[in-house]
From TrEMBL, chains A, B:
Protein name per Swiss-Prot or TrEMBL: Transcriptional regulator, TetR family
GO molecular function, one term: transcription cis-regulatory region binding
Keyword set includes Glycoprotein: no
Organism of provenance: Actinacidiphila paucisporea
DNA-binding region location: 42-61
DNA sequence: TTGCTATCCGGAACGTTGTTCCGTATCGTG
DNA sequence: CACGATACGGAACAACGTTCCGGATAGCAA
């Protein structure tokens, strides 16, 4: 209470340099730990990897859910930002494929988050909207480019694709071994199939 | 290890009377606590309500998941067994409606179980099969009776209905207040609508 | 009924977790 | 360079799941 919410990403005015270092280290470490052991991983594991004390974590993220939400937004930003970068470097179809794989990698690090989202914690309320708001335009642009280039059909719905891959990438047991990537390739092939029509 | 799995329900040969009492008390208490606070509720809360020590719980249910699975099977049995009872007491349509409400009540007590099922704990592996194996025939019989009586259409798929109600009854926030019941009534009305055809 | 033994019970004790607290170290500024 | 505000680290606390064991009890045999 009284503590203004700590925003992830770009440094804020008035934040001391060492504080910003701690925040960055925590976000990086938390992202790695969440990817490895899910969002229920012990806090001490995060603080150890970040090389900070427990007090430092709770100073910047008063509740555990604040850290999770911050990491989530951080990664959503990074993933969405990859879309224009890929579009500039590769041809439209290649950029689309690579970004979908990138997106699948993002989803794969979200073990346990689905449950957290339905836990009723109001800190998470804004996350689904944030998710759609950033990813749908990113994918939409990639799809448009590929369609304009004649590489894929033009009636693909971005949000449909995001949900489909979201469901593909998250559920499986630990023996994935390329399954998700193959399924994405198949989806893209499906998009290419209708290119002529 | 070496401890044979403790079966819920009917007493086994060779179990001492006091042990059976403890098992019953634990299953009853756990069912209430799970319904109230979800499957993640503290173990001490269960032992306290059962009037039993912690050691007693772990003697009969070596892992937490064993207790959850036992309660689950226990309640599946009870819910499935209600079908023929209702069928004998009420007319086919009334029996069907009442059982679906009963089933929704069962689902409503399963907060957190969905997440547990996807946790990879092998103790839970048999539960989905157990679920379908007991509920599908129970509902199927009720549907057939109602269809034969001309009260509802005859092409309803039991498993479809179970899944639909399963999804209806579980997700909402805490402000349900009869929503599930209204939706079930609506579903039954839908079944009645096609009765003539 | 009485006594014996395998079994079971209760709750204290252990290790791990999330979270709080505070003495100390550091940053930014005059 | 010195000072106040801020942030740091890790010890300390509470709550959790789980283990352990001395004492109690049920079931059986005589």
């Amino acid at each position: 209470m009284g503590d203004e919410p700590t925003l992830a990403g770009q440094p804020r005015q008035g934040v001391r340099a060492d504080a910003q270092r701690s925040i960055d280290a925590l976000l990086t470490a938390a992202a790695e730990v969440f990817a490895e052991d899910g969002v229920d991983a012990p806090v001490r594991q995060i603080t150890a990897k970040a090389g900070v004390g427990a007090g430092t974590l709770y100073r910047h993220f008063p509740q555990r859910s604040d850290l999770i939400a911050a990491v989530f937004r951080h990664e959503v930003d990074a993933c969405a930002a990859a879309a224009p970068t890929l579009a500039a470097r590769y041809d439209p179809l290649e950029a689309l494929t690579r970004w979908l794989q990138r997106f699948a990698g993002f989803i794969a690090t979200k073990r346990g988050l689905s449950a957290a989202l339905h836990s009723g914690d109001t800190t998470y309320d804004s996350l689904p909207g944030y998710f759609q708001q950033h990813f749908e335009p990113a994918l939409s642009a990639l799809l448009d480019s590929a369609a304009k280039a004649g590489a894929i059909r033009s009636d693909a719905d971005p949000w449909d694709l995001l949900r489909a891959i979201g469901n593909l990438a998250v559920p499986a047991a630990d023996d994935d071994s390329g399954h998700t990537q193959r399924m994405i390739a198949l989806l893209v092939d499906g998009l290419r199939f209708g290119a002529g029509a």
